[in-house]
Amino acid sequence: MQKVRWGVLGAANIAIKKVIPAMQRGQWCEIVAIASRDLAGARQAAGSLGIPKAYGSYEELLADPEIEAIYNPLPNDLHLAWTVRAAEAGKHVLCEKPLTLNAAEARTMLEAESRAGVKIGEAFMVRTHPQWLRVRDLVRSGRIGELRAAMGFFSYFNCDPGNIRNIRAAGGGGFYDIGCYPITSTRFIFAEEPRRVIAMLERDPEMQTDRLSSAMLDYPSGQAIFTCSTQLVPYQRMHFLGTKGRIEVEIPFNAPNDRPCRIFIDDGSDVSGGGIRTETFPICDQYTIQGDLFSQAIRSGTQVPVPAAHGLRNMLVIDALFRSAESGQWEKP
Fold first, then answer.
1. What is the CATH number of the domain that holds 162?
2. Which residues lie below 8 Å from residue 42, measured CB to CB, with a gap of 6+?
3. pLDDT, position 1
4. pLDDT score, position 190
5. Residue 165 DSSP one-character state
6. According to the model, what pLDDT value does residue 182 have?
7. pTM beyond 0.85, yes or no
8. Is residue 325 one of the residues assigned to a domain?
């Protein structure tokens, strides 16, 4: 088995602190290069992480014939341009979420993927975590009866105007950064696409990013609601409710890599919790799993965990939510 040779565009915090170290622990990934527009920054990151090559431009990294795949954690407004350029250079690309800033950009990315004959995927690591695979299997097996409703919440507090998450022109704001998670996870568990959506949002008066946003997604089989915020107490939870029970995911999105994860399965027999059974999942790193599965797909010629086509469908929902927040009406993705 030959590991896939990866290059990283930029030295974003998520790459340096989470994704690169996790992929380096994988069985199928080898990080061979990192690029930054600041060569000194690239060299520092490479030295601290034991990466052999450091480049002072993204172009140099894409021109390296040794690199087979690219991890793109650049700011949201740069996802399209550099993912397309990587594909045109013959590289497979794992692009951070959100895949693009709108569905039109996602279609452009899909066209580039087709032309180049490479694989492009969206980095929704949650879809490969064992706890989410278990939730999906439990729902499919009828453990909670017919799935009819989902509820979610995801928040953190960050009001720094210099932080990339708070720069609207760069694709900052709640729906893009964290609202995308309840969307992809409910699409994953319902195994359907929403027929219509409605949303309301509150923008920060200075930064103009959506800082408090709520949405309802109307699926053929049921309804999903969620709230996300970039300026509230840090919290996250997902609930799935059926005709015979419910499932609660304790830490659905930022699953820890240093302790077990848990889901709670409630048969509904006791509102005080007497009918709850806990399932615990061994310690794992969802970024390691994501990188290995993507690399295996490259080696085997199979589909990557979250293909760009799925990213397009998520962007169709996000586009519709933004339209709904403006119109005050239900909108169709």
1. 3.30.360.10
2. 11, 34, 35, 36, 54, 55, 56
3. 76
4. 98
5. G
6. 98
7. yes
8. no
The closest of 203, 217, 206 to 174, measured between CA atoms, is 203
> Does 10 fall in a domain?
yes
Residue of 45, 40, 39, 43 lying closest to 11 (CA atoms):
45
Q: What would the DSSP string read from start to end of 94-121?
A: EEPSSSSSSHHHHHHHHHHHHHHT--EE
Contact (CB, 8 A) for 261 and 277: no
Residue 312 lies in a domain: no
**C-alpha distance across the termini of the chain, in Å:** 42
Looking at residue 114, what is its pLDDT? 98
Q: Is 270 exposed, middle or buried (0-12, 13-18, 19+ CB in 10 A)?
A: exposed
At residue 145, what is the residue type? G
Do 92 and 16 reside in the same domain of the chain?
A: yes
For 230-272, the pLDDT digits (tens) are 999 999 999 999 999 999 999 999 999 999 999 999 999 998 8
Q: Look at the chain and report how many structural domains it folds into.
A: 2
All residue ranges of the chain with pLDDT < 70 are none
Q: Are 189 and 126 in contact (CB under 8 A)?
A: no
| Alpha-carbon gap, residue 220 to 6, rounded angstroms | 40
- Of 284, 257, 255, 287, which Cα lies nearest the Cα of 94? 287
Total length of the chain: 333
Per the listing, tokens 């059926």 go with 242
Q: For residues 86 and 103, what is the distance between their CA atoms, to the nearest angstrom?
A: 20
Sign of the C-alpha dihedral, residues 260, 263, 266, 270? positive
pLDDT at 12: 87
* Of residues 148, 155, 173, 177, the one with CA closest to residue 226: 155
Sign of CA dihedral 19, 191, 326, 226: negative
310: phi then psi, degrees, rounded to nearest 5: -70, -35
- Half-sphere exposure (Cβ direction) of 158: Cα atoms closer than 13 Å: 19
The residue whose two tokens read 């004959």 is 117
pLDDT at 204: 98
Domain extent at residue 93: 4-123+288-306
